[in-house]
Every structure is written in C-alpha cells, then in structure tokens.
What does this fold into?
Amino acid sequence: MSPFGPAAKDNLALLLSGGGSRAAYQVGVLAGLRELTAPGTPNPFPIVCGTSAGAINALALATHAGDLHAAVDSMLDVWAGFRSHHVMRTDWPGLLAQAWRWSRTNLLGGSGEMTTALLDNRPLRELLDQHMRFGCIEEALQAGLLRAVSVSAFDYHSSQSVYFYQSRSRITPWRRHRRIGVQTRLGLDHLMASAAIPLLFPPVLLNRRWYGDGAVRQQSPLSPALHLGASRVLVIGVTHRVGSGPAAGQPGPVIKPPPPPSLAQLGGHLLHSTFIDNLETDLEQLERMNFLASYQPLGMRNTSEGLRHVDVLVISPSEPLDVIAARHRNALPAGLRLFLRGSGATRSSGSDLLSYLLFEAEYCNELIELGRRDALARASDLRNFLRLG
It folds into this structure.
C-alpha cells in the first residue's frame, strides 16, 4: 500500500473483501445503507473495488450505479435465494465425475483433462452470465456515476496480484512488489478468476495466463483503491473482530490433549489467512501512515512528495460467522454434505471452512440480516463518513 501523492479529488471508495458465502454479509451492510438513503439515490462510491466473492458484489453494485436501491435489490434477489447448486455441481453424477477427474490427475498421474479443483463451479459462471450486465459499467463511467471499478486476481505464473480496473479516464497503471494494475474492460472471466478459490475451484485462463482467487498472497488489499485516487475508503469485512484472548503463557486448564486438527480445520485456517489476515495488517499499516502524515510539514501535504491522509471506516460482523454456519450445516444438500463429511467440514470443528462454502439461503439470509443490523448500529458513523447529511 502506498498512500503517497494527492488524490484527484475527494473520492470515496468502497472495498469489498473476499470470503466465499461470507460475502452475503456485505449485501446486508449495503441493505442497511440503503435504509439511510432516499429512493433513487445513486451509488455514493465513485470507486468500487472487490476481491473474490466481494468482486461479484462490487460489479453488481457498479452495474446499477445510477440507483443504489435497485443495486441492493438485485443483489438481494440472488443472495437471499442462494442454493449451493447455483455455485457448484452438487448432484451425485457431478460430484463423482469431478472427484474422479481430480483423483486421476493428482493421485494416479493419469493423462487427459488436467484439474486441480475439487468442485465444479460452472453453475456460477452460468449464474453470473445471466445476471451481470457488464456493458452498464462503461455507461456509468461515461455518465460520471463512477470513476473506476477494480477486480483483483492472482497470476499463478508471476506469483503476483493483478488489479484489473476499468476507469472513466486514463489512470496510469502501476507496478509494485508482487502487485500490478492493468487497465481493461471488465468481463465474466475477470470475475470467475477473482473467485477461483485454490484447490476448490479451477483457475481461469485469461490473456494466456492462469489466474486464481484475488485474495491469494494479496499483500495490500487497500492498494487498488488508493491507486485509483481514493481519499476515503469504506471497508466491509467478513470476519468477526474478537477481543483479547488469554494472556500468553497462561493457558486454561487442560484435562486431556485435544484431537489433532481435521482437514476442514486446517482448510478454515488457510482460508482465514488468505481472505482476512492481510486486510487487517494493511489497515494497521494505513493507521500508522496516517499518523505519520499528521506530522509532515504543511508544505508537503497534498503533494506528490508527501504522505496522503486516507480516512477509513470499517464495518465488520458483530458475531462470529463460523458459529452461524455451524447452526445451518444441515442446509447443505445431501450429496455435498456427504462429499465434505470426510474432511470434517460438517462437524462443529469444521465450521470455519463451512462458513466460506455454505451457499444456502438459511445461512445467507442470517448474514444479510446481521449486516443490516450492524450497518444501522453504525448509522451515525456511516452518515458522517459518507456525508449523507
């Protein structure tokens, strides 16, 4: 992240992080924001950036930039009725065929179609192709309703984050350590690449390079918003911010050693480190940079040589989403539940992993309602930050 140099103007950015089915929470926050605005209010964010499932929400918002209420309604239509088969094959023939392709390629060393994915997410491509009106992004840009829209993906060949962005005017592409910005016209392949969770969903071939989930090795999630000119950033996270745990070196009493972690527990921790940890680190770094910016000479402020102060507001779940997922684990279709049972994902100990994969209406609607409540609980902060009046 590099908050150097001036923003083009007082640009407000929305940053939507990745998190699989957890992204339903973001829709709830936007639904709460809708209640704070009048009908017909245009999208208040000239810069919209998203990663993984957050990229899907970001582009859904961008395609309805002229009416925030219509944008939220369109997202609710999809998320409130989600079922796993809208995202991945959950029928037995589909699950077994994908499992056989994966085993033949990775365990038996067979030839033929190569696959590193455990699940077949072609239904998600069909869903996005049906609902996303990508041409509306350019219309909103030309109408001045948007300044720029960004989607992140991970380039497996160069091992760097790539921020694909579409903007109203020319914004100089950037190149930093393990991250670059590429100006282009956004489309379906960019979304599928950004949401291709490693090992679970297949990588996407785009411009003769293979891409995966944008959260992989994403060292600076705030970077695209800042490079696209943001001076204020609203971040909607998907992880519960917990308080301090027990003091180091003072563990509670242990009666017997716990069992070793299941595959689902390990997968949940890996997904946490992919989707969450870097965002929290980047926010801490931005706080330090803002502190330093307050001490720089007045003559250097708002110049290309000085540090730029960037205001950030974070809205994140007030309840742990893995606990909510555990309550709804039986909502998984029988085939997928049996397919995941061996990993421990359908047990309470595997609820972390389940919280990313539970694309079921019961779970998604509870996250939407939680997001709406959390947004309304911060109504005063949101009004002040977004300058709603």
